[in-house]
Amino acid sequence: MAASTSAASGTNIYAAGLLGKRTPWFVLAGCLAASFVLFWLLQAGTPGATLNVAGAIIVGAIFYPLAIYTISLLVEGARKAKDRLVTALVYGAFLLALAPLITLLSTVVANGLARFDLEFFTYSMRSIVGAGGGFVHAMVGTLLMTLTATVISVPIGLMTSVYLVEYGRGPLARAITFFVDVMTGIPSIVAGLFAYSIFALLFGPGTKLGIAGAISLTVLMIPVVVRSSEDMLKLVPNELREASYALGVPKWLTILKVVLPTSIAGIMTGVILAIARIIGETAPLLVAAGFTNNLNYDMLNGRMQSLPVAVYYQYVSPGVDVQAYLDRAWAGALTLILIVMLLNIIARLIARYFAPKSGR
Amino acid sequence: MPDTAAPARAKPRLRPGDRVFSGSALAAGTLILAILAGVAAFLIIESVPVVTTDPKDINILDGQPFWSYVAPLVFGTLWSSAIALLMAVPVSIGIALFISHYAPRRLAQGLGYIIDLLAAVPSVVFGLWGGNVLAPAIQPLYSWLTEHLGWIPLFAGPASGTGRTILTASIVLAVMVLPIITALCREVFLQTPVLHEEAALALGATRWEMIRTAVLPFGRPGIISASMLGLGRALGETMAVAMVLSSSGGITLALLTSSNPGTIAANIALRFAEAFGTNINLLIATGLILFAITLVVNMIARWIIGRRREFSGAN
């Protein structure tokens, strides 16, 4: 089927033993057409069946590598055929990865808009059963806990990267580098269990506080901050440091007044990307900060809701009116994605517009 | 490590500011080691009651010994991550090759950002998507597979009616680790010495032969460590599995039925809110096992990366 379409395109190019530049496109079109015809024929027997467009495209996409391989094998030989096969597979891999991204974003936007209204951003879930209500308690919780985690982890992370770049020599620095890398791989729920364990030992079992959630986020955030700011500090040209030393400036002032200001844009980008990473964390907050329907501004007293945990609970324990709970969950997911995207864009803008003028 | 200061032997005097600053930098660095040690220590302390308490007094255990409770969870964790990795690694290598060697130069960076977008999506959103969109959409395929390929043990029937099987969970996990593995592989592939590539092409190699002889051998340690890091992420992933998988315990290789093994992380998330007394200690003990597994996986990955210093995973 596909061979006939491709044969039509060539005039004299086969003489050179090569496929034409546009031949793969013709083959692809032929494969898709054949696949659609196949699906149409299969479903023609069953009345009322609609054409399975997604299935037809997938089957057509599976046909294509086989078709191009066969055609190329016949015309160009085995080596070229394998090259074309791999090219088709590599392009296919990329398109395959786009599929979940596109369906995910489109469903989140489509389902999230149903409850993306004023009430969602002004009401908590206190004594709400069924429809209505909002996530303001969760947004306040997320804001407070993320802010606290940032305030704790940025100084620690930044000073650690200063140590690694400016001071660190020998086994201790190597150990810190290694374990920071290992720390990036800590499962988020283990960080939550760690924070919970601290407070369970101090205040008795079952203690779930906003500050515990913040501490679990800190554990996840510190390694990210260290790695990104370490890379940024390494980018600062050594000439700047040497010029400063030559003027008799002490080392700590050199770091404070020369090194850090030069790399501040990159460090801020790293911090914002780290925030974007922890703001969507669910598991540690579920374990350490618990779950509540009420607005709570006090980090040190009572459970604290957060946006991802709120989405999770709307999903796993819906009430009688399931759709109302699902709508809130999707609206929460949309809010989360928007926040994360916004943070990513801000980070990229900072990286672009406040980048140091010198060096590199 | 850039060699910054004047040589160490020429230390004239230590200013107080210097001492405070270097001291606090050192303290911050050590604090990180302390935190990591603290994570292990606190988890161990909280896990001790599980060993000392009679299994009959822990409700979740229901009389069975600790290890027979943990074994299916460990199996589920490893099994789902292994399947996820099996799907994610070839696709990631393909995407990384696409961005580094196939895509038009001008588009490559933008396409890389698009894949990075996947990494930015919070896991709870992946869970929502996997449970509400992917599982119903893929269920017909499962029915078809059990009907026609049911003789393969992996596809043994009966197919789950909801589609919330371990295979669905693994697909979601694969999508989640995809950007991590891709980012690292891409970075490694881009560092292939251009002279090697050009030499291969000059000898008449096709693009695939060039990649097979120059790019892939150079990138092999990078691919391995990227896969290990992806494995670490998949092992510890909680929410997506908790929201997608309907687990009933037990060890089974069947991918498409409604009786699936749970995973450690998802089990903790699902049970922690209602747990009380020693049940919490039990869950923390399973968390300790998860911590140990991921620690080993990550340390192996870092060790492999460490042997090739030029590409480090976090940047």
From TrEMBL, chain A:
Domain of life: Bacteria
Gene Ontology MF annotations: phosphate transmembrane transporter activity
All residue ranges annotated as the ABC transmembrane type-1 domain in the record: 139-347
Annotated TM spans: 25-42, 54-76, 88-114, 134-164, 176-203, 209-226, 258-279, 329-351
One record GO biological process: phosphate ion transmembrane transport
Predominant cellular place of this UniProt entry's protein: membrane
Keywords: Cell membrane, Membrane, Phosphate transport, Transmembrane, Transmembrane helix, Transport
One Gene Ontology CC term in the entry: plasma membrane
Topology in membrane: Multi-pass membrane protein
CDD domains for this protein: TM_PBP2
Localization of this protein: Cell membrane
Biological role stated in the UniProt entry: Part of the binding-protein-dependent transport system for phosphate; probably responsible for the translocation of the substrate across the membrane.
Family that this chain belongs to: Belongs to the binding-protein-dependent transport system permease family. CysTW subfamily.
Official protein name in the record: Phosphate transport system permease protein PstA
Organism of this sequence: Terrimesophilobacter mesophilus
From TrEMBL, chain B:
Entry's Gene Ontology cellular component terms: plasma membrane
Keyword Membrane attributed: yes
Any one GO biological process: phosphate ion transport
Superkingdom of origin: Bacteria
One function term, GO molecular function aspect: phosphate transmembrane transporter activity
Record membrane topology: Multi-pass membrane protein
Occurrences of domain ABC transmembrane type-1 (ranges): 74-301
InterPro entries linked: MetI-like, MetI-like_sf, Phosphate_PstC, Phosphate_Transport_Permease
TM region positions: 20-45, 78-99, 111-131, 166-185, 234-256, 276-301
Localization per Swiss-Prot or TrEMBL: Cell membrane
Main subcellular location of this protein, as a coarse class: membrane
Alphabetized UniProt keyword annotations: Cell membrane, Membrane, Phosphate transport, Transmembrane, Transmembrane helix, Transport
Family: Belongs to the binding-protein-dependent transport system permease family. CysTW subfamily.
Main function: Part of the binding-protein-dependent transport system for phosphate; probably responsible for the translocation of the substrate across the membrane.
Protein name: Phosphate transport system permease protein
Species for this entry: Terrimesophilobacter mesophilus
